[in-house]
Amino acid sequence: MNTSVKIAGVKFKNPVTTASGTFGSGMEYSQFVDLSRLGAVTTKGVALTPWTGNDTIRVTEVYGGMLNAIGLQNPGIDVFLDRDVPFLKQYDTKIIVNVCGKTVEEYVGVVEKLSSAPVDMLEINVSCPNVKEGAIAFGQDAKALENITREIKKVAKQPVIMKLSPNVTRIADMARAAEAAGADAISLINTITGMKIDINRRKFVLANKTGGMSGPAIKPVAVRMVYECAQAVKIPIIGMGGIMCAEDAMEFILAGATMVAVGAANFTNPLATVEVIEGIEKYMKEQSVSDINELIGAVK
Amino acid sequence: MQIFEDSALVKCNRLSEGIYEMYLKTKAAEYAKPGQFVMVYPKDSSTILPRPISICEVCEDSLRLVYRVQGKGTREFSLYKEGESVKVLGPLGNGFPVEAGRGKKSILIGGGIGVPPILELAKALKGEDVTVLAGYRNSDLFLDKDFKKQATLEIATEDGSVGVKGNVMDVIREKNIKCDVIYACGPMPMLRAIKKYAEENGITAYISLEERMACGVGACLGCVCKTVKKDAHSHVNNARVCTEGPVFEASEVEI
Fold it and tell me: What ipTM was predicted for this assembly?
């Protein structure tokens, strides 16, 4: 049985990675999950300098999901290169580094610092809904997305994945813009902007007022968007949004995703990633499919 | 050592209005220390996040958790019966520094649903010079009998129905209780008052903070608190309550 997939020349042993921000740099989950089992670890967004993030409350549960407004707290690229990359290199898995910034120059700066690092791919976070300056603007305007993709591609030494926001009118347009500017792959969906109000205190629950919604409740939206993008572009797609189990992952693959990412499910079940991988293998056996690649986009 | 497993609910009770206990038989009990907590995972699939619950007592092969029914998750827990299988992750967090209380005069303060973790600490400091202050809303007390077995217990109630009328700080003033070390868990206004009192009187205070959490293991960065020094993870003065905490020296956090 072959579960390995390829994106931009990088071979992953299976199509399962982690959704950025839900798995740290793998360290925190490594006592429960053998990271070498994973196709890749996608790390928490890293910027050029340390970011403080938003005030608390940063996370809250909603029906079938959660809202988060962390605001991309991170230690900056220098600490990340010294601490997190060597940690992940101990494992037989691929490393996808999620990159964030507030200006094109900041993104480019991080990408340049990563140029000689032993990481496999870069995922560019142009879609975080929780950071005021920049960030999301790149992900909600096709022209801006095209521009930043081009600038990053000029300096990137690793293949580039552009992570798309669902908070747009037509996500396929954004996928096309990323492809036209030379992106090697796209990943989607980032969280859907939401809000929760505490009716007793008559206050917003999150300090940031709005937060990004993730979890099983957003899955149908995510599957639909992956399908629309798969119809629109030829570059590979990493699908995510509410994947709790292997059945959910298979929906994304059938809709056209080459890989999938497990996100909020890590909170619901620290073993979720490995259980999704095992479940995909079981599904392939039951369906008598010998190569996962036969299933990518196979929905009729 | 952190354990993620299906534990067995061996005993459960309602202790007071909205306050419940459950004893979970789990390997996590082997490693648990006072002031640590566990994540308890609801079964209802619409509740995707585990609930952080402080450890009230470490028994031989089980953990005693005492919690308030606050929302959907804890309501589900309160309906469990003996024999229920309950997914649990822990022990998590740093816990109270018990050694700091050896040979010293300590006050152990719990307010509301911050009372439970004080019990295991009182047990660990048994034999030392310890006074427990427990603050409740009204005469719906819980764990008071357990505390009396371990230490001197003073009670404050908001309505004055038992003990001193007011809060735990009123007890300290009224009874003129002196100490070298304070350990505390409870609502933020109480912790702020303790931090101020400790600073004014040159007392070391260890306070256990509560914050909304998603993962419980330091990955999501949801549950941070502002710290005076650079934090271990992001170096931005935002420490993770679940990992660097929940117990902090009061002078090291900005609350």
Answer: 0.96
